[in-house]
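We modelled the chain as a single entity of 236 amino acids. Its sequence is:
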Amino acid sequence: MWRPCISVWVMLAMVVVVLSACVPIEAKMGRWPEGPSTRTLGRTIPVGGPNDVGGAGDGTPPPTEGATSNSSAGQLPGAGPHEGEETEELSDTATWLTYTNREYRFRLSYPPHLVIETLDERMLATLDPSPVAGVDFRDPRGDVAAIAPPAFSVRVFENGERLSLEEWLRAHQLFRPQAGWVSEPVTLAHVSGLKIVSSTLMAPGWWIYVARGEHIFQLTPLGQEAERMLDTFAFE
């Protein structure tokens, strides 16, 4: 009478054993156990793994909500590189000093750390062609300041015949197209003239020439700061 019931219990026990044996098989097939997880790209990845959302793949924790990152849209408002550079440039030129030459009626601004050196007749005579006036703006800072070329220089030449600018430059060997030198028109903030670019590798390698009346003005910048001085050159 009890034998059929005993058989039923034996069969149920065998079913439980079989089901219990299936659990490790699923684990061996690569299934993750249930628990906290983050779903991305259709996959379930356990939280705390190396590929956490917001992590860098090296264990870096995800960014805190409200924090500013250094991405392309993470710069502070009003502090972009171009705006900052422009403000700095304006503040620099605002502190510049102004040099005025009453005899030849020109002026220009220069940084306050530069010192002015006016060429005397002996120094002018050593130049070829010999100018009638010259002024250098030198940077006294540094160990080689005594022998370094000026940061900016102005030379004034006579043009009594009132030749055109290019004719005068050719006549005085200051423009040598046969040697590969190039001449191109240039317009500064207050004056216009010619830019002469030599084929040599010696600095500065180029000059600005401006004609006015019976005089030719040679402007020689050396460096980016000196090039900014060009736009301050003007006639009285």
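As a brief sanity check on the tokenised model: Helices lie at 3-28, 81-94, 121-125, 165-171, 224-230. The longest strand covers residues 152-158.
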